[in-house]
Structure formats: C-alpha cells, structure tokens
Design a protein that fits this description.
Length: about 110
C-alpha cells in the first residue's frame, strides 16, 4: 500500500459514506468504514458491508486501493446551511421549524 493509499484508508474512517476497497488479491468490498483498529499487529479497517452482511476487518497490508465512492450523508447539512435555509423560509413567509431534512438513501 502506497503512502497515498494509506492516507485514503485513514480518510475513509472519517468519511460518512461508503468506500470501495480493493484488496491485493483482487477482491472488491463496498461498505461503511467505521473504525481503524491498531494494535501490536497489522492495522486494519473495520467496515459494515453495503450488502448488509456482517462486519468485516481488512488488514491494511491486504489493501491495494481505497476510494470514497458513496454519498456523504451529511454533505451540505452544516449548521450554516441549516440557518440559511431557515432564514430563507422565514423571510418568504413559509413555515420554518427545527426539523431536520431526511437523509436520502444511496
């Protein structure tokens, strides 16, 4: 794994969407990376597969490539954007509340 790919693997932990991981043996896994486990042995990414399977742990030494391929569920949902939309609704005379927007699947 190159330094750039290691950086992508670490970024996947903070990404709020699915990542596509290709292993050195050519297997491809798509899922939500929720943890980087580091210890005495090889560090590993832990993820929930997109197909609903059980949690998977893939050692970093077995990862060839990591791509952040899913939609970030929180993209565009910052506090500043929420306040802007709230103010726009109020100024337009529309009902504005504290309800959040639903998260779109996929």
């Amino acid at each position: 794994m190159s330094a750039g790919e290691r950086e992508n693997a670490l970024r996947a932990v903070d990404f709020r969407g699915d990542a596509t991981i290709e292993t050195v043996d050519g297997a491809v896994v798509v899922g939500f990376v929720f943890d980087l486990r580091e210890g005495a042995g090889d560090a590993a990414l832990r993820l929930l597969p997109a197909d609903g399977g059980t949690k998977i742990e893939i050692p970093l030494s077995r990862i060839r490539r990591v791509e952040l391929t899913g939609k970030d569920a929180a993209s565009g949902k910052s506090w500043e954007n929420w306040i802007r939309r709230y103010a726009e609704k109020k100024l337009a005379g529309e009902a504005a509340g504290i309800d959040c927007e639903p998260i779109e699947p996929g």
